[in-house]
């Protein structure tokens, strides 16, 4: 099976970034890699096993250490569906997402299942059509809950810090801080609820963003935008 070559670029210090797809119909977010001689920390799994394999190939081509830890910023499919293609890693996530992903793992995922679910609830259409596009095969696919969970904060042996922030987008939203590289990885934490649960009044939580900005972090990265500088992050107004 051929593997597409995708872009992986250094952001700051030991943080590398695989950019997301700007096409909103594709729903493919960015994935960060924190390189470390003890093993790299991968932040989010990719939106499919194929995407994950492409990221692994890009890491190898860039000479980055193999992944040892995989951190979920939250449980949504485009952040976790690639996990089954990351061998020999410890999957870490907030405790609030563990049971949700156990239920997701029990679903009979297939293209037919996706079609049936959209017929039953058309609001699921954009998300489930993107899932269908992401999955070229269901062979060997499974949703993997985190094997290690935390409640408030957790620091990995590499110095990478995980902090639960919650929010309207997902109850398990976690930010990932890399102090020595001055990078804050935000996932989707300040986004409004997913489209099928969103009301007309829902909007990005800019108050949350303002509360996360710190002088010691020069870069702020969410999953579906270009990285922001500290100055750009400060310009967000609630």
Short summary:
Residues 28-224 form the Metallo-beta-lactamase domain. The chain has 238 residues and is α/β, with parallel strands linked by helices. The chain is built from 7 helices and 13 strands.
What does this structure look like?
This is Metallo-beta-lactamase domain-containing protein. Pfam families: Lactamase_B. This protein has helices spanning 49-62, 77-80, 95-105, 111-120, 125-134, 206-212, 230-234, and strands spanning 9-12, 15-18, 31-34, 40-43, 67-71, 90-94, 148-150, 153-155, 161-164, 174-178, 183-187, 219-222, 228-229. It has 238 residues and is α/β, with parallel strands linked by helices. The chain has one domain (9-234): Metallo-beta-lactamase, Chain A, CATH 3.60.15.10. Helix 4 runs antiparallel to helix 5. The longest helix has 14 residues, at 49-62.
Question: Which key phrases capture this entry?
Answer:
238 residues; alpha/beta; Metallo-beta-lactamase, Chain A; six-stranded mixed beta sheet; 7 helices; 26% helix; NDM-1-like; Metallo-beta-lactamase domain-containing protein; RibonucZ/Hydroxyglut_hydro; Metallo-B-lactamas
CATH superfamily: Ribonuclease Z/Hydroxyacylglutathione hydrolase-like
Beta-strand content: 15-25%
Just give the CATH class.
Answer: Alpha Beta
Main β-sheet, spatial strand arrangement: 1-2-3-4-5-6-7
Please name the CATH architecture.
4-Layer Sandwich
How many strands in all?
A: 13
- Estimated helix fraction: 25-40%
What is the chain-wise order of helices and strands? EEEEHEHEHHHEEEEEHEEH
The largest pleated sheet is described as: 7 strands, mixed
Secondary-structure-based class equals alpha/beta
Low-confidence stretches: none
Shape: globular
- Termini, distance in Å? 48 Å
- Average pLDDT, rounded to a whole number, is 95
Q: Within the CATH hierarchy, at the fold level, what is the topology?
A: Metallo-beta-lactamase, Chain A
Q: How many helical elements?
A: 7
Radius of gyration: 17 Å
What's the domain count?
1
């Amino acid at each position: 099976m051929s593997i597409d070559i995708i872009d992986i670029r250094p952001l700051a210090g030991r943080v590398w970034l695989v950019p997301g797809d700007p096409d909103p119909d594709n729903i493919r977010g960015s994935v960060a890699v924190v390189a470390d001689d003890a093993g790299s920390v991968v932040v989010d799994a990719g939106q499919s096993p194929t995407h994950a394999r492409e990221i692994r190939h890009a890491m190898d081509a860039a000479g980055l250490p193999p992944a040892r830890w995989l951190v979920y910023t939250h449980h949504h499919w485009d952040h976790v569906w690639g996990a089954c293609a990351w061998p020999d890693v410890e999957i870490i996530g907030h405790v609030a997402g563990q049971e949700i992903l156990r239920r997701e793992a029990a679903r009979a995922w297939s293209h037919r299942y996706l079609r049936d679910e959209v017929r039953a609830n058309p609001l699921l259409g954009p998300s489930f059509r993107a899932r269908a596009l992401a999955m070229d095969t269901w062979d060997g696919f499974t949703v993997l809950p985190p094997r290690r969970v935390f409640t408030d904060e957790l620091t990995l042996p590499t110095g990478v810090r995980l902090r639960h922030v919650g929010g309207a987008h997902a109850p398990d939203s976690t930010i990932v801080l890399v102090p020595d590289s001055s990078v804050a990885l935000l996932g989707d934490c300040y986004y409004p609820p997913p489209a099928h649960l969103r009301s007309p009044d829902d909007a990005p939580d800019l108050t949350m963003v303002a509360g996360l900005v710190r002088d010691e972090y020069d870069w702020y990265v969410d999953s579906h935008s270009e990285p922001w500088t500290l100055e750009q992050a400060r310009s967000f107004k609630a």
